Amino acid sequence: MTLSKNLEKKIGKKIKRCQLLIEKDAGTQFCDDPTDFIVICNAGLSTGLQQEALLAEALPHGPIQQVRFPPGKSYCFLHCTSKASAHAVYMALNGVCTLGQDGAVLLLAFCNALPPCLDNNGPWCSNNLPSGLILERDFIDEAMEKVLLEAVNCDDSEATDLQFKKTLKHRKVKHFGYEFVYGTNNVDKTKPLERKIPAVCDELWKRLQNLHPELRWHVPDQLTVNHYDPGQGIPPHVDTHSAFDDPILSLSLGSDVVMEFKQPFSGKQVCVDLPARSLLIMGGESRYDWTHGITPRKMDTVPASNGGLTVRKRKLRVSLTFRRLLPGERCGCPFPSLCDTAEKQTILLECHAAQVEAQNVHRVYNEIAKHFSDTRHSPWPRVEAFVRSLPAGAVLLDVGCGNGKYLASSECALMLGCDRSEGLLQVCVDRGFNVLQCDCLAVPFRDESVDACISIAVIHHLATDQRRKQAISEMVRVLRPGGKALIYVWAKNQEANAKKSSYLRQNKHNNKPSTQNDPESAQEGSPMVQTENVIVGATDCTLPVHTNRTQFQHQDLLVPWQLRTSESMEKTTFLRYYHVFEEHELEKLCLDSGDQITLVESYYDQGNWCVVLEKKHHSNPTTVD
């Protein structure tokens, strides 16, 4: 279609206005001459434009290599395979195609390249697949597919079918073993079904064990069969952690489909094309830390054989999802963000934080004070360097000073320490240090009364985010403007930069080189976790007990300390509460604690995340004559 001169001029003006906004928003550099890259200037995710619809209009005019939809934007990008194909698409769609909002025509322009954050293979990048996700293509043949379809055929009564239509938007579903309850993504373990998983499925387990003997295997006892007509899907979800074991299996029958995996806390998204007769194994991180779902649509965008993208029409697909119920009521996975057990534990910790700290921090450190002090005699170099950098006459407060090993690091500054443990404070008094007893949540110092603060291995003993923020706020409160604070907390990752921390290296087993073909090594990422009841007025408040000198699997946990009493040669085990920190978690916690501080430095040291903060100077109030 040829545009009139008047219409072409109007469209040109609109495109220029859009270009200015996109250039400012995304840094896109536009050009008048054809390139491989096209910007759809007025349509994107925020206007409801769908990738499949765009490709259906563009592909007849030239091959497309990539399509990029920036989240929440009213523009998007096409990466064509050549300038010629880009020019053909431009001429066919610009000012003509009515995929814009409310039927508006699309406005197209050429640009030099995709924005840096979009210049990759996007959700189809194989390097981004979630850990633990395995796709076995052609897991079964057509004959087995037919046998399975006959065995699980949904031949339900009319009344049941109407219920399915009401609750699942016309998607037919059938359950075996136990009913999978949509909405909670759980089962009622007290109500097993008479209908068990068909015996023909036993052949599947033999094949899977032969293919993947390294998996922590079990025979499923629950099966959900879904019939997906074209246009049907299922929202992003994670099967309830405390209900089902690892892994979860999905067998695709009848047709191909694209399943989307999303990791909520990172924003990562990965598309996985599931061919008919393939088996998807969702284990480890992919099972616990990513949601999976199928977008309701009649076409899928998939990689083309030539390396670009194409669209494929959906057909009837039948999925068989196999699960194994967990015998207990708790999940022991190391992925808390989507875990119902971890969520309940967080709520319990928030309700009983003070009791947890009293029992598993304060009481324990009083009991082990002397033995603990005997093992804490060497200052960490970077902490000592911070203390020694203070000018003569400066006042330093060590919040949570322990046995006072840093209070002797400077001879020219006034060194003060405070701690909750009477036993550790007595060690400080015996050494002649200036110390007092207090809680780090309420430091008995005046506002802006010290020049520097250090808090080394203290805040990770506080049981909630709010209490950890309060401890940081207290240090900031007592700092003078321009004063600095150094904070160390234990890191969950004890192997930064491919180097094990000293904590791990003290375990001789950790110093052995790992072998990729060692089945035991392959399973170390998902260890069985012991749990210990913490009696804090809530009988179901439990925390995992960490195995010393091993990589952390959880953030909130109990770390054992063994002490041999003088009366007996037997060792007594004390359990200390810790919240070990993810990368950037401490930085965010500090910045959320108030607007009075500047983050000067953040680094990793000796298995700890560390920050240096500086308190801002007061801004001079504006005076009006």
List keywords for this structure.
single chain; 625 residues; alpha+beta; seven-stranded mixed beta sheet; six-stranded antiparallel beta sheet; 30 strands; 25% helix; flat
Walkthrough of the structure:
By secondary structure, this protein is of the alpha+beta class. It is built from 14 helices and 30 strands. It has a seven-stranded mixed sheet, sandwiched between helices. Strands 6-15-12-19-10-7 form a six-stranded antiparallel sheet. Strands 1-5-2-4-3 form a five-stranded antiparallel sheet, with helices on both faces. Strand 13 and strand 14 form a beta hairpin. The protein is flat and about 90 Å long. The termini are far apart. About 4% of the residues have low confidence.
